[in-house]
Amino acid sequence: AQPSGNARRTNEPEALAHLRSLGYLGAGVSGPAMPRNLPDPKDRLAERAMLLQGEGLLREGKFDQAVAVFSSVLKRDPGNRFAILRSGIALLKKGDIAGAIGPLEEAVRLDPEQAENQFALADALTRTRQYRRAVPHWMEAVRLSPRRVAAWSNLGTALGRDGKLPEAATAFSRAVELDPLDPLLLANLAFAERALKREAAAVTHLRQSASLAPDQFRYSATLGLLLVEAGEPKEAARWLRKSRPGEVDYAEGRFELALIDLYGGDKAAARANLQAAIGAQPGLRPRAEANPALASLLR
């Protein structure tokens, strides 16, 4: 079922913090292979040639030149729908995301039933962290292109970042149904499930993600922490040891690993992991000092 635009919000800080790690697939805006609404060649040969030139520049990655050509078309023909859309996409691809929003909003206003218009505007809004504004456009994108995996996944990201956690999980589930072998989609679904306290499902999907791309898996600490909560410290430790600085939950994972090592009798390893945890997140020091066993490692 498609997520509801009137979804219940959550203000749980921990849950929202978990969703900071959601992956995003929005940069792949492409668009139609050829203009759909070109003027009749007999009437607008020059504009047609310019549009094709602009499209060629866009596909070659020459975004500034493409924007200039589409702008020239719009001076001649201000309502040209293709030029409006593609100028917005060229701005988006060159990194001027804020500048892209205006043309893309106009493209949606002129042709709201075009999936690419909705996708591109939703992409720009999401990448400028306007998640609540992005959600209805992602919902239109999945309505118009119900098998487009990136649209479902990005809808999940926008919903999650806006605090609509059950609806985010629903969108991610749909993305996984469409592409069950994508490790990023599985990880996204797992983070939404973790935020919803569906820990067992989150473990299952993170394990699947890890098995599909073991060399690219960057959520070892998260999986380890979930396994600690599930009462599986031995397997948890195996995953926690794989985590690396900069990865999601690295500091918390090393903190938990220090406890596991300490209670396992390896005081040296516990001290090293505690130092790594506090080095990555100094705010963990008071927690360590409040624990007599860990506090002894700080001296």
List the helices and strands and how they pair.
Blueprint: H1 13-18, H2 45-59, H3 63-76, H4 81-94, H5 97-110, H6 115-127, H7 131-144, H8 149-161, H9 165-178, H10 183-195, H11 199-212, H12 220-229, H13 233-240, H14 250-263, H15 267-280, H16 285-290, H17 292-295
Helix pairs in contact: 2-3, 2-4, 3-4, 4-5, 5-6, 6-7, 7-8, 8-9, 9-10, 10-11, 11-12, 12-13, 12-14, 13-14, 14-15
Q: Explain this structure to me?
A:
By secondary structure, the protein is mainly alpha-helical. Helices cover 67% and strands 0% of the residues. Helix 4 (81-94) runs antiparallel to helix 5.
Short description:
With 299 residues, the protein is mainly α. It is 67% helix and 0% strand.
List SSEs in N-to-C order. Answer: HHHHHHHHHHHHHHHHH
Structural class: mainly alpha
**Helical segment tally?**
17
List segments where confidence is low: pLDDT < 50 over at least 5 consecutive residues. Answer: 1-12
Termini gap: 56 Å
| Rg (CA only) | 24 Å
Nearest-integer average pLDDT? 88
The major beta sheet can be summarized as: none
Shape: elongated
Count the beta strands.
0
Q: State which percent range the strand residues make up.
A: under 5%
Features:
single chain; 299 residues; mainly alpha
